[in-house]
Amino acid sequence: MSVAPTNADLAVDETPAAPAGPTGDSPRRFNLNLRQSGIYIAFAVIVLLFTVLSGGDLLAPQNISNIIVQNSYILILAIGMILIIIAGHIDLSVGSVVGLCGAVAAVLMVNHDVPWPLALLITLVVGGIIGAWQGYWIAYFGIPAFIVTLAGMLLFKALTLMVLGNRGIGPFPDPVRTMSNGFLEGYLGNIGLGPLGGADLFSLLVGVIAVAGIVFTQWRTRSGRLQYGQAVDPMPLFIGKILLSSFLVIAVVTQLARYKNLPWVLVLLAFLVLGYSLLTNRVVFGRQIYAVGGNLQAATLSGVKVKSVIFWIFVNMGVLAALAGVIFAGRLNQAGPTAGNQFELDAIAAAFIGGAAVQGGVGKVVGAITGGLIMGVINNGMSLIGAQSETVMFVKGAVLLAAVAFDVWSKRRAGASR
Amino acid sequence: MSDTILQMQDITKTFPGVKALQDVNLTVRRGEIHAICGENGAGKSTLMKVLSGVYPHGSYDGEITFEGEACRFSGIRDSEHRGIVIIHQELALAPQLSIAENIFLGNEQATRGLIDWNRTNHAAGQLLERVGLHENPVTPIIDLGVGKQQLVEIAKALSKEVRLLILDEPTAALNDEDSAHLLGLLRDLRGHGITCVIISHKLNEVMAIADRVTILRDGRTISTLDLVEDEVTEDKIISGMVGRDLDHRFPPHEPNIGEEVLRIEDWTVRSPTQHGRVMVRNANLSLRRGEIVGLAGLMGAGRTELAMSVFGRAYGTGISGRIFKDGREIRLRSVRDAIKHGIAYATEDRKRYGLNLIEDIKRNISAAALGRLANRGWVVDENEEFKVAGGFRESMNIKAPSVLSITGKLSGGNQQKVVLSKWIFTNPDVLILDEPTRGIDVGAKYEIYTIINRLADEGKAVLVISSELPELLGICDRIYTLSAGRITGEVPRAEATQESLMTLMTKGTE
Q1: Does the ipTM surpass 0.85?
Q2: Helix intervals (H) in B140-244
Q3: Which of A24, A290, A299 comes nearest B402 by C-beta?
Q4: What is the pLDDT of residues B187-239, one digit of tens each?
Q5: Across the strands, what pairs with B481?
Q6: Nearest-neighbour CA in chain B from A277: distance (Å)
Q7: Running DSSP on this structure, what letter comes out for residue B370?
Q8: Contact assessment for residue A317 and residue A94, using Cβ atoms and an 8 Å cutoff
Q9: DSSP class of A379
Q10: Residue A232 in contact with residue A222, Cβ under 8 Å?
């Protein structure tokens, strides 16, 4: 996300080797970063736009909380989806899986009084089995994911209806509702923030700890890179970035603390985003997903267990879809026959808006989350200004097309300079 | 025969930051075969793209005159309209369509808007006759080999009433037989008044077929030599291409051969696609430490099939036979097993099977041995990865601004160095290099040979598969020949000649 002060038009593919000193930032990185940071700039613009249009309502404490809670399940799905898209596949069935797993959880918790932690665990296992079923056909049998998951979309929808008997099941136990819809307790009481009024001290502390974590890890990464003589951002830019991200974290946390503390799903999401970012960036398995998506044959001949990688990312998608299913059902306090309808489209759109490439091999968890939030802010912002649902749909479609068009265009431009 | 059909004068083409062509001059006479030689990146392809209108008029400086008229093409259609047809290295045929459909793609034989299939197939049949391809015009392209596909491309060009035919590396993917047929066809076309421009790395072909040759280096014209009138040697062309005299095309090497490290016994491999077809039959092979061994064979002899089946069964079904590593029998069920047992295989097709072209150098080098960079096999140490890749960039002389450069943008020679780095990083005892210098320029070839020698000096065994016999004779200590899936000979370098190898390579095939 660095915007180094280099001449963007200086993309040279065969320049003689320059020493990779701390200042040896190549022009290529600039282009790439422009492509990657475009999504964050777009997000900022969209937030700003709707803040102005809604007269500031968008950033009100309760609304920020709403945006997070209302989009949590899409964001969870987007994390699973980005892995699949990086590997060069697609999953059209996640909406149906969300519905089915919500129904399974409801039957277990409501009809059979299974203790909720056990029921949650069983539901996640069911999700994993569904993923394994699809992963088997795709990875080992060799049917395109598009077909397998299109079939899955129908199969799991049908199973949902069979499990539910075409009616809603509820209400859910309190802990499940709290997980989906509730907030952390104010363990340390409130604190006055002058003109901003009262805010929860514990939430603020979590925010401060998060900022400290950002500063610490960024600093450690930077000094590690310097030790190895790698290019890093110049110090002012580095500090600027840290200040910006710290400010954003503190601003969001403060608004949430002024409302009802941190939502539980936000805590869950934070752990998922951190965990999956680590997985994709640095864990061997995660790196192999990129290798598979970038060049399947080359990955195979490099000793990557290609089939097993593909199988497990679908298992993972199934588990995350089950989690999203429970959260969605808990939020509505009922598992219904229409639960999960068209969620797959939102999750796929989030991944592509977030910079994933249609051919595979490219994408980031943080990008998918940002893509999901862009969709969420558009939904929320347009309902704040009283737009009709067809208008919202139209705008979302246009944004998706524009995002991918930008990606294709910038890639072509990079290619043309060869 | 000295009138000029094409004159390109003072062509200069600039990309942001790079001058790809500078004041290039090219004069092609009517009815000649004109070769263009130059290292990769010398500007050959760029020049041809300027000529064919891929880079439209206005995006370059200079004048193009074709058949006495100035040309200002704004696209390929314009140049094709004037009878200039270019056949690219990567063939542009639709695999599922028939030969006839491909020949008339974009030029459909229609009456009143409906395609006349009888006319199409008949006309295609006549064109196939002309290029000497005996196939039914309704055969799908996918059923043809590369050599025959090349002929279909030429037939397609002929259907457009071509006056100037440009071929970019036409024989790069062909075996000797198909190459010979293609070159014969070009001579034949010359006899019928079609002028050819041929871009080639294979100097023996250039010597055999071309009337004149223009040498490019670093985007400039170095010279145009007349091969018919003057005495021109391959070495003279090479020295023009690289800008220095190449006394030796192969670096000298004193082998230091140790004990046997890999032995393959009674190895048989069957085709996974054609049921029951035996690709390799009862092959026996032995490699020793510090030894560079060649594997010679015509295309289709089963060289790649043999190598890949040994490399953890990456190819083939119904594989039988035994593999011994350091005297002990091993079983390799997967590529992972092979890598674990110290065997590496660098593919003949690095773009399709060797590299992740959208990733950077660093991640490609680490791809086959990520575990070596990971703490407890889990989390990759990216700083260490950077350091390792940087080390290879230096030791292998990979010419790129940094290890963060995308491999898809490197030249062929540098891509090959990345592939080799990847395999060296797996710390192998045996390296199988399949066509390690295919499609890379003379200077980079020399570097690759030096690397191969260095690997042997480190006590590794290297098996080099190559279509170019001079290359095998130049670098190998011992050469196996393969013909129709059987090992037909094993010859020490001192006793091998191109002729004796070729005899063995064609033995028993009839």
Answers
A1: no
A2: 146-159, 176-191, 203-209, 234-242
A3: A24
A4: 998 988 899 999 887 788 888 899 999 998 878 898 898 888 888 888 788 77
A5: B296, B489
A6: 12
A7: G
A8: yes
A9: H
A10: yes
